[in-house]
Amino acid sequence: MNFAKKIADFARYQRTLRELNALDSRQLNDLGITKGDIKAIARGTYVA
What we know:
This is DUF1127 domain-containing protein. Residues 4-38 form the YjiS-like domain. By secondary structure, the protein is mainly α. 67% of the residues lie in helices and 0% in strands. It has helices at 3-21, 25-31, 38-43. The mean pLDDT is 95.
């Protein structure tokens, strides 16, 4: 994995965290996730 890809992956991770953390519990519930799921989703390791 090259350096540019690592930077892009980290930027995507940060953006996903920021966007999901901006949602309230009701909105997350509508999506079927909880606050505790957000990091796993951003890392791409979430299993439903």
